[in-house]
User: Fold these one by one.
Assistant:
Number 1:
Amino acid sequence: MSDLGLPTYVLTEIDSPVRETRLTAVDELTRLAGGADLAMAAAARRALESLTEDDSRSVSAAAAAALERTALRLRPDRVDFGQVAPGTPRVVADVLVDGPPLAIATATVTVSGPGLRAMLAGRQLRVLWQPRSEWLDGSVTVRGPAGWAEVRVTGEVAVAAPPMTRTGVEAQMRAVNGLSTYGPPRVTVLPPPRERSHRVGAAALIASLTALVLLGGVGVAWALVNDGSGGPTGALADPPPTSGPGTLLGTAQAGDAPAPVTTITQEQLAHRIASVARPAVVGTIPVGDEPEGIAVSPDSQTIYVANQHSHVLSIVDAGTRKVTPVTLRDTPRFVAVSRDGRQVFVSMYEDDKSGSGVAVLDAAARKVDHYLATGKQPYALSVSPEGQVWVPIHSAGRIEIYTAGQQQKVGQITVPPNPHAIGYAGDLMRAFTANHESNVVAVIDMRSDKLFKSVPVSKSPHSLAVSPDGRRVLVAGYDADAADLIDTVTLKRTGPFKVGNEPQSVAWAADSDHGYVVNEGDNTVSVVEGSTGKVTATVPVGHSPRTVAVSPDGRFAYVSNGADDTISVLRVGE
């Protein structure tokens, strides 16, 4: 056979007349199919599919087994929400998407069932049920280049509200300002009878190979259904999984034969890579002239650094630490990456605010695709769960919103002066902005794109970030040397918590257990407990640290050091 995507020695082994040599090729193809090089992995799976037709039964069986081992899997493959009280707005469960990087590259999600929704973010499949009928018997299907897998989802609305119980996860519902939302849900998960996976044919792999070559990282895809219909969503890729075990109880389905209650282990995805209370600096990478904004690609493999005393965006390979400079039209300030990793957005302006706009880069080609004209002084832009680009316009007190793809401007939102940064609680359809001169965090209803409420915080909120679990907002108060926490549901603020001098930037660990506060005034990063705000460590970094970004896989955080022309690498998860 011939496939230019494979190494020559592997092609030689595949074409060998010796059975043992072809078995060796199967082993090597299995290794390649599980690797991070998506084009190579796709080629390896095509070769394995071809070898399932080998004349030797041992070779064909080995190839089939290899395809199964490198296929997409969902754990568990059944979710039972059990009985929920009448009027319950929604309940949520998390499912692990297992398999090698190829398993979720360009994956799509389809749902079937009234009131059922699903969101795929890297290796976490979040299943959400908004009860619309007495019974739910639906499914969520994830399809990718390495096959497809399905989760059956069931539940019912109780005639009378069942008693409140604790089964490893507290069941609670909360209502805020007349808007019903959910707290930590009680989720009943039945153990899968077996792991299931399905292979896709060579034609599907060939059709997706071009997309795989261009794929820059992970994205977020939503699947929605109205009374049984469903549709696919956008492309995804692969941060490594994150979790820790929790114990839940299974229940029998109505209409089934009575079954005993069993205790099982559920993997809480946000804890597979656990953040540490005392991170360590493990490296320093030279970049451009006075690095400021920093962002990490969804696959955690690429770091983007805006150098604000030049017209250069530094692109850093996280593995090799090789730096590639890309010249922009104007001075870069802050960076964001699209949910699928294919586009990079860089806010730009000169010291006199001329040249204000956003550069849109093709991540694979590493070159500017086009520029957006924005209001003066676009600040720390970000990408919403729907893929839109939200740009805070510092000098005008507003947020400008641009569509995904070609970034057509579709709206703007007036907020208190002067917006610096934006974060999202996607399940709640709320966005939060840090408004530096107003000493408040603005809360935006994303359904209407209207200002919902303003929450007073410590003086000069320079930056904020929403925890990955969507429950808390961490805010840096630059002139107060303090940080605050805001509950995204109740909008109750706690704090201030004393951190270092002139806290400028914040970020969260992938498991939401710790937050990171960059203190420009004393060259440190404060590590805080996500639930209490207690400082667990103060980590020295470079001179005049500006911005922090955490890799989606939860392993590292990167801090830009403006006076050193470097970024510090912190190991934050293990």
Note: The chain has four domains: 8-69, 73-271, 292-392, 415-574.
Number 2:
Amino acid sequence: MPIQVLPPQLANQIAAGEVVERPASVVKELVENSLDAGATRIDIDIEKAGARLIRIRDNGCGIDKDELALALARHATSKIVTLDDLEAIISLGFRGEALASISSVSRLTLTSRTEAQSEAWQAYAEGRDMTVTIKPAAHPVGSTVEVLDLFYNTPARRKFMRTEKTEFAHIDEVVKRIALARFDVTFTLSHNGKPVRQYRAVTQEAHHLRRLGSLCGPAFVQRALAVSWSHGDLTIRGWVADPRSGGELPEMQYCYVNQRMMRDKLINHAIRQAYQEQLTGGQQPAFVLYLDVDPHQVDVNVHPAKHEVRFHQARLVHDFIYQAIISVLQQGAAPTLPLRDEAQPAIHWSPENRPASGKNSFAGAAPPSPAPLFPAAEGDRRDGGQLAGRPSVAGGRRDGDRVLARTGDDVAPPAGSSRGRMREPAAAYPAGPGYQKKEGELYRRLIQPGAPARDERTATALPSATAAGDPGDAQSFGRVLSIYPPCYALVEFRQRLALISLPVAERCLKHRQLTPDGEGLRAQPLLIPLRMALQEPEVAAYHRHQAILNELGIQLQVHQHQATLNGVPLPLRQQNLQNLIPELLGYLSAEDEVSTERVADWIAGRLSSEQHDWSLSQAIQLLAEVERLCPQWVKTPPGELLVMLDLGAAVEALKHD
């Protein structure tokens, strides 16, 4: 058979095989066209589950008379023009195949009027020849598409349609999914002349839960935990169901990328991984999530039905979603947001403060920020109670800025913090008062209870917690007053002033996070396993110390001189594992006998922060974790970590007798 160009009608029917799977597919394509046209109200009329009639009417911008016939042509669209448009798609449709494909398997009528026209016009196209007839019509501003006798000219496709009840259930689900993405649009759905669904538009966030309840049911809303997280060009918002509220979770799994319905494997993997420690038995995650990404960073043109996307930075997106959801689930002890009448007062939840952090400034009106005691580091901007673009936390801890992805005692660095860069072994933090540079000595001195390291300058007795008069001081470093650049926190410690070295606190905290307790650290699987080449000494070190690596949660498979890293503990997820693991094996190759604690000590010494100028909120967050995981350092702080300030000389200088 010779090569030849397919006839237009045959080409359109082949395209219809991808676009028009069933009547619900037609509804999806036409409603998305209405949304791209700027409609705020969409009416959907269905007869015989779409086999006889699908009518979509909207109040969008409409189509000009001269473009009506072109709208039914294949690959004709107003949504993209150049290749650059294809690389940053912001509309729901862009291929220009929907109307042409639908008209090739039905009798399609398109009626439309723009605001500039005084009358409406109607285009009619039918099956085999697909010739378009245009005539005047009566219609308000907007468009109406009528699809009659779907698959009338393709009996094989009609034969595979299910019962009327089943097909309409698919249409109902499609409308529900689209309505979940656009709370600002009113949708009505009728079947065989009877109203079935009406989703009224809501513009205020206070009414979003009411709309969510009408779409997902009160069972989901009663368990809903709000998600709102941002990092650079990534934003995720929506709701996840709290799995600890008892009973089975509702079957609710809806995800959107830039308002586009999505069933993406990467997104689902991140959500399931965040839920895996929370679910019991046969429970499944329940969520309604909206991910907003820079259009240049996502490719939506990778699936015939646009159900999947490809992210240019897949690992970043995966870990961002994971951190956001696990953080909300771990804060799930907060009251949920029930449906309520407008007359009832709203329920506000405020996270628990650190002991000695003072009154929660988010519980009421924010007080004016006090002037800093020392000049703030660059980037630690305070303006009207704002800190680096976020609410001031001088009087309390904002848990919303924390991402504590942990299993047991494993705690990951906060999302959005720029921590996680590998450093050379010779690199070191600026030496603070009493800081010990000797490799490993600092950690061993800090983790031994009852034997704290002391500096001569701090040899004076520290006031006891009892003398301070505040029982919370026994578990807290006290209120963080300011940051002394670049990396020291000024705290009110037991009724005196003290300086805390934040790099030392961070490094020691990492050591604590990497120290296995009981059954060892739990490995978190990598989305994309890392492959690396090893030298002979490194391979021998792996076989000799494999038990220690497993206890630290490092899942490594070695075959000859090739290694595959499948999982690491949470504190290492943000590290440069391609360099860290070979360096670790190189260290182990020189050690015949080594303990798990020494290996954790070595890894902690290689984990360095990119944080040079600390902000007040970051200091509060770090010290909160130190207080939680290492209470012995609060009780008897070592000289490398905390130094009391002697203000006697300053007081004497101010005396004028």
Note: The longest strand covers residues 524-533.
Number 3:
Amino acid sequence: MDLTRRSFLKAAAATAAMSTVVGCGTQKAATEQLTFGTEQTEVDKWVRATCRFCGTGCGVMVGVRNGKVVANKGDVESPVNRGLNCVKGYYVSRILYGKNRLTKPLIRKEGKLVESSWEEALDLVALKYKESIEKNGKDSVGMYASGQMYIWEGYAAAKLFKAGIGTNNLDPNARYCMAGAVTGFMTTFNKDEPFGCYEDIEHADVIILWGNNMAETHPVLFSRVTDHKISKPQTRLIDIATRKTRSTEVADTHLEFIPGTDLAVLNGIANVLITENLVNEDFVSKHFNFKKGLENIGYGLEDKFKFADVASPLTYEDYKAFIAKYTPEYVEKISGVPADKIRELGHLFGDPKKNVLSFWTMGFNQHVRGTWANNLCYNIHFLSKQLGRPGATAFSLTGQPSACGTAREVGTFAHRLPADMVVNNPEHRAFAAKIWNVPVDRISPNVGLHALEMLRAVDYGKIKVLWIMCTNPYQSSPKLARYRKAAEDRKAFIIVSDGYPTRTTELADVVFPSAMWVEKEGMYGNAERRTQHLGKATVPPGEAKDDLWQIIQIANRLGYGDMLFPYPAAKTYDGQRAETGESELKKALWEEYRQFTVNHGKDLAHYEDYMGKTGLIWPVVDGKETVRRYIEGVDPYVKKGMEMEFYGQPDGKAIIWARPYEPPAEVPDADYPFWLCTGRVLEHWHTGTMTRNIPELNNAMPNAYVEINEADAKTMGLKRGDKVKITSRRGSVVAPIEVNGRGNPPKGSVFVPFFDDQILINVVCIDAFDPISCQPDFKKCAVKIEKA
């Protein structure tokens, strides 16, 4: 199928229009439109799975013929997408059959990666781990994991590193995308993940997108938003962002703010709620406490930076005094958002007859004050009682298919254990040690290195062996040149497990070829707390093997196999064929992991309960899922008579935080006069490892570009397609410009997507991060633009 970008976009627009007109509820039409292959494609069987891309968790039916995947279509029974898939989901099966699949282990010899046997590659990796642990200690090794790994892969990795080796140097790429959401939840509720569900879309009167280009990053959910607007025309969609996007085109209102000043806007709305008597004070008094944390907390720019968020209690009167200066007029001076619009937002939140739904993702999380942004959004929902009923909720969307299930719930973060437990809590360590059947002192009480700090540790020599699984940090990390050079200089022994060559595998000492998606059985956890099973539809090519098998093989060679994986199936499963114990092994791991969740408000169902189903939203108690949390009569953990109970906190009250506006780590100046923002586009997902191996998607969007305002382009004598050099204090790249395209930044700002492995925009990005979440800020740094 040979598509130009223009014809592809035209077809994609027609598909989007079709889905909007017929609505997600017209399942037959949506499914026929989005079937991969032809309507005449014959299959031997259909296997139920979940899409491999974003955290929406769309259901996919995978068609198999003669053992090969030949078709896919939207799952009409899925409550997530109701038969609809986006353009990436339309082509998801193609990720299995790119020309560049890795099919044999590779070892670097004399500077080049050459084919080897699995035995040789596994033995070498185990030897490097043993040597480093013996010479430099347990904390000299680590793993950079992924929110794309299946749940039991993340669980097995946690067991290997935290209960076997005894280091907490295990952190996922979710640190780059969802850590701010996690710390926002934990500091507010002391429980992670959203309290609402996707169904809230159909009950909302006002939907607010906070720095969130939902049309391109979560298109199926956006189709539900647009369908809801059509069926209920009085619904307001408000786009609050730093640039105009495809989402803006559908919005009723677009409010543009100066990068980083969303903190001031959120406080401004709280100010309106308080000063204009729109606060439900009885509700606030009953269900919330007030706190204030440290201010001027830094930007995480020093390699050995350490931070602890110390909080002090406030009264409601103290909070009102704190928020008093954030008048709409004051906020307008900081943010550029008109004072009357801030008042309007306050009145929309404060209207008890309206249900207000907030959506956000990287705009809040990839922010040097990302935790604060999450906190402040919850504040305005709490003050106005915009929660606890359908359509009134604050919802953090997720970027990866199992960033929730595999990173957050399983505990592959450097500070966590499963089910919101943490390594520096002795009771939590004891609980984990009992389930894992290991001495408690095997689990280190010391928080490990977070993802960015792990790459820094390679540079300054603390990490000697690093295993990177199912992710591409040597393309996706900020201040990229520094970390690539450390790898190029062989400062650490690097192992990479992946399905395709990437800018990370090219730096590896060993490459493990991995089975992908439905080449293995799996479980994912999506953004609405829905856990879903993925059936195995085919076998991986060549000698590619399941990541779980790889983890167990290394555990065996390090002497931890019998202790950590004492299941007969762990010895028989060969990483490829299901008949050699795959399901038995994964069921055993699931049921063991499930013990962490039961009676902790994270309850997962038994393994069999997910088979052939469209998923269950946890906590699952007595066989029933919980679609909305913390609400009496809906959430089984809420005691009778409480109305609402935030049971993660000792007194059942969530926190309203006094958090100030503070500026970004770097702002434009005379030398670097432009703001740079990075992000995703519709056709590609993250670093393009999979989507750039799908010809239709890659032909439609073959390279990254610099999105620039028309006035700036005119001043510089530039026209669409001209190449420019974009430079920061860290490095530069060259890319063509896009003027009046699908996105339109304001004067003085540019946007560049990061999927292109030949235009490494992250070389330019600053490696500042939120000191609470340790999540980098990919949305704000200063650059200059010159004609190339």
Note: The longest helix spans residues 118-136.
Number 4:
Amino acid sequence: MMWCNYVCVCVSVCVCVCVCETLQKGVCPVSHKKSVWPGSQMMLETKRSMNRALDIKSYFLGLQYPLHLILDVKEHLVDWASRAGVQWLSTIIPTQHVNALVFFFIISNLSVDLFFFFIPLLTFYLAFISMAICTLRVFRSSKCWQNFSALAALLRRFEPELDVESHFGWSQLEQQLYFLVSVCFVIFSFPLADKRWIPCSELCTVAMFFTALSYASLTPAAASYARRAFIIEVASSLCALTTRLPEAFKTLRLLGQTFETVPIGELAVLTISLPCLLYLYLFYLFFSMARMHGFRGTYCFLVPYLVCFMWLEFTVVLLQNSTLIGLIRTCVAYFLFLFALPVLALGLAAMLMIQMVKWFLELELTKMLVTLAVCVVPVTLRLWTRFSLSILSVLRSITHRGPVKLILLCLCCVFLVCMGYVYSAEGLKVYNSTLTWEQYSTVCGPSAWKQHGITRTQILCSHLEGHRVTWSGRFQGVRVAETENGAQSLINLLPVFMGDWLRCLYGDEYPSCEGRNVSNSLQEQTSVNASVLFQQREEEELCRIKPVAKHRCHVKRFDKYRFEVTVRHPVGGAEIEDTDSDIILLASHEFKQLLLNLDEGSMVEFSTKLEGKLGSKLPRLELKAIHCLNCRLSLLPEGRQVKIERNWRKSVQAAIKFAFDFFFSPLLSARFKV
């Protein structure tokens, strides 16, 4: 072993000597395409000698440590086999198709209501976390601010015109400003979120803790103003809460009673009450804090106190949405968390085990595991073949600027996208355009085609786009234009035994049809409600198809249909025989029950919006609402079905009203109706 090292050292010395001799002769040791360096041959021989020496060294190492050699060979073989196996699996499993089908299956099951449920909750919790982080940072930097203020006061004794406190104060305002932005998101999303998924009692105690923490971080220079403002704020909130007391406490309820209301414009109203007077004095204290030290108190005293003010106001809001049992449960839970943590951990573990067993018995856990496996397999194969991708490095690159900035950036993007959607959403508008079907047929119907041609008629009728109309016509028929079922498409790619198992796991089994009297008509069962009638009719249809069905189970409950409804315009009690005047209405899946129970020739009243290829044959319009006018027996109330369109603007107005009342009540209250 020693002679191998000696040979390497000698070779290195020889190389250095050759390079030095070449430099002394004035020749640059760089090889070009058309010139040969004199020492290149020696360098090549030196390189070969070094490689030979390293090979000999590794050979002797292998003889000296055979176990390590075997382990290295095993690791290389396992690595090579895993790479080959992954490539073999990637060629067998259609990862691209599975990815596409899983993606479309997830997208097809997402709805606007799901987004409306999920986005406000996500916004609320992310903004609440941002508020907590900013408050902790403000508390940490409060000591630095006190030390810097003392140093600045000492420096001003020697240099009275020195103003370094303002620059440091503005730099310390960053976290307070982030906090105020987070408060806006919390207050705006709280009325939109589902309160059943917000633990108001638990969050109320957390808000109380951060209120005390933010009050402790205030500077002592404005302690008198802050103490008075805090007392006035607490007194105003307690007076406002007295209105929630029972009727027996009449004397205490007078503290929060409104004596008079003065309208201010059309959007706000001034309430005259004791909390209102206290709030006016509170604003005076805010102004007094801001004008200290030549209005440098704005960023030294007022803005830090606003952090405490917002926490206290939010505590009152959460307290109004809490229950007494919830508060007691929260106090007991925090007591157990502090003094009986091992017992609490064992209790939580036992509850978790019981819940897991319950999920397993209900096959919910099996569905979760199967779904997770189906989604993870193609993703795992994709990431395994690309070893350069590191999820941790991506997360570090995203969060290197801090979690608060990342949270606020995501919330701002979501807010802008949602505002654009809300602005373009129609809501529950009335389709009562003055344009009649007769006028449309005259301008854009067959008579106009004969006089001016179809092309000119289409160009002219494009001016009618945007009309929201409600017309009456004769129902001619309905057909299924499109069917979407991502689960069925994914199951069809799997082997038969696995597909049958998943079909029964996720789907439904065909009903037992023994002893069922199929001859009974649903039209005679008037004493049964609509949901039972729908279920009985569906079971009868499944019994008809069960003898010829290929599988024991089905996943048809995941089907989403797109219908095409043909409506004809009646004139003078008789319908036009020319089918060119018919209109095709595109109906979504929610119109299924009503459309399946309509008879051909029934008179219907429908609402739609004119858009698309107007003036052509069989124009296709989106169906917004349909009402059967002469149906004898309807399985739906009044025979009417309206396309489900949430009134987004009304929800946003409710959120704006809540935010306005949060910041200005009890002094001012929003007046507009929601």
Note: Residues 1-38, 518-527 have pLDDT under 50 and may be disordered.
